[in-house]
Amino acid sequence: NLTNSNALGITLASPVTLVNVFRFGNVNNSTLNTGSYLTIHSDSVTLNTARIADLTNNNANSGNNITGTVTVERYLSSFNNRAYRLLTPSVTTKTSIHTNWQEGATSRYDDPKHDYGTHITGPSPDQTNGFDATQTGQASLYLLDYSKGWVAINNTNVNPLDAKTGYLIFIRGNRSYDLDQPQPGPFNSTNTTLRAKGTLLSGTQTWTGLQSNGNESLITNPYVSPIDWPKIYAEASNSANFEYYYTFWDPNVGTRGAY
Fold first, then answer.
1. Total-model pTM
2. Which ranges in the chain belong to alpha helices (H)?
């Protein structure tokens, strides 16, 4: 755990890996300046994904804040299942999807940090536009367009990641698998950890262009923490416009996942 109880704030000067919870103590208007050194860790060893607690510390006037970039990890257990997942990076990056979720790999054989990153394939079977080459050129990363449905991303070299965007991604596992080899089947995959480095969101977040008249919209959890849906729903503006329930994607349903 890491608690900032310094009213003058904290600035990190060397790498810190958080494996449980960061919170502010009984302070107001304090700042954690990460210095780009903070990693929010996630793995199978501790059976835990670290999180950031309510920055207000239950004080609506606290003014506490986190500045600087943060690396957020998300461990994905394969359950021996190559499946689609709905993910958000929990940070907004300045660098590309390729730099983050593909670990900046230079080829489909490249595995820069073992057990981290995944292959992302695209419309071209060649190693172009940031994609990992395949024999078929089958896309594996999509964005939702309410008028068109799921649309394949056309370049991972130029598009950054966004904490308020939901990405539908087919996870084959980590980058150790050779895409030139025959498909290992739907029940053969590897664990991996995706990570992204960027800035955190806090406070009230607003989405525009949502669907109405009973149609569903895709909303991410923009925070590096679980959220309490009943509390969100209790806000008058939310309960007036949204249903009490939400629908989520489970990668363990069927062979490729389902709602």
1. 0.93
2. 97-100, 229-234, 236-239
